[in-house]
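Inverse folding, one chain.
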């Protein structure tokens, strides 16, 4: 079996001359990646110079089964594997591949970030490319996502704020209606629309907005990285649009278990709290992050009291209140100071 590519220069040579670069980061999702690659075949007729880099964040464990599928299906001309030296998370894996595109002279004008648990409906990539070609001020586009059972998810998102933290934690009808314009998830229609950010499960980026200083922030291991990326692009004058004619099936949470079917029954992983804290501190400052924590914890306490009085079931993750207190920005800062 052909050994997967690990040398960065070989990956750069592979990308040179391509029109569209697809990046898929795999972590214990080898079989799902193969399904994603099968679904991408329909894009080759529209984009014969499309190239796909699968970044193996298991440091070679996923590569064996994926490489076999590449060889068995004769996909070598358009798919290569890049083995990550370590599992640095979603941002690290994507940046590993993106940096190869930035080394080329004028290739990969568009970079399509896909989750390993996605399958592409015909025309999904072409719709995103076309929208970027026709709208020069748009830097990022996102697809309409569908659940594994075929039902439409159809959401894009607002940037997180103190008010969105209150709404999500409190989950109390009158306040939810009052704060409906601050909820993070925004149900979308059937027309393209400018939004704050789109899901990194299917996100296409104009190469022009990427450089060594404007990649995904690798301080995020998982979650909030696409939120942060879209925010920083917006601050530099690039808009993000939701493009519903691009349709992608997403079996969310397959490698993490933190989202998707039954996710509310599972305790949130530590990296999700770390990513949230980093997002608020980095983009809004320590004081804002502290107030956001107070608002969230206070709202979770109120939610618990309301549920007890009304006899309602818990609709939050297990131990969310306790974990939120343990990850309070101020407390973590004090602990770091004491350790020094």
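Residues assigned per position:
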């Amino acid at each position: 079996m052909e050994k997967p590519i690990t040398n960065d220069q070989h990956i750069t040579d592979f990308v040179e001359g391509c029109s569209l670069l697809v990046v898929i980061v795999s972590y214990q999702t080898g079989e799902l990646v193969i399904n994603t690659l099968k679904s991408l075949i329909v894009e080759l007729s529209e984009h014969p110079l499309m190239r796909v880099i699968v970044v193996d964040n298991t440091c070679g464990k996923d590569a064996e089964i994926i490489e076999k599928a590449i060889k068995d299906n004769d996909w070598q001309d358009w798919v290569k594997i890049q083995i990550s030296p370590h599992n640095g998370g979603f941002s690290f894996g994507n940046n590993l591949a993106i940096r190869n595109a930035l080394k080329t002279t004028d290739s990969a004008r568009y970079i399509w970030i896909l989750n390993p648990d996605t399958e592409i409906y015909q025309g999904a990539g072409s719709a995103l490319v076309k929208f970027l070609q026709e709208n020069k001020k748009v830097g990022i586009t996102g697809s309409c996502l569908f659940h594994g059972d075929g039902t439409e998810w159809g959401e894009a998102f607002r940037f997180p704020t103190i008010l969105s933290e209150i709404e999500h934690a409190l989950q109390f009808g009158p306040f939810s209606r009052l704060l409906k314009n601050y909820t993070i998830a925004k149900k979308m229609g059937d027309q393209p629309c400018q939004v704050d950010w789109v899901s990194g499960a299917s996100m296409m980026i104009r190469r022009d907005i990427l450089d060594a200083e404007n990649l995904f922030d690798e301080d995020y291991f998982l979650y909030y990285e696409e939120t942060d990326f879209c925010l920083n692009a917006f601050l530099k004058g690039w808009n993000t649009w939701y493009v519903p004619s691009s349709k992608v099936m997403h079996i969310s949470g397959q490698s993490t278990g933190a989202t998707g079917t039954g996710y509310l029954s599972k305790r949130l992983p530590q990296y999700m709290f770390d990513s949230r804290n980093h997002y608020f501190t980095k983009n809004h400052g320590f004081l804002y992050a502290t107030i956001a924590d107070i608002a969230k914890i206070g709202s979770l306490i109120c939610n618990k009291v309301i549920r007890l009085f009304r006899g309602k079931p818990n609709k939050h993750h297990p131990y969310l209140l306790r974990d939120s207190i343990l990850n309070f920005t101020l407390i973590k800062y004090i602990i770091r100071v004491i350790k020094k």
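The first strand starts at residue 20 and ends at 26. The chain has twelve helices and eleven strands.
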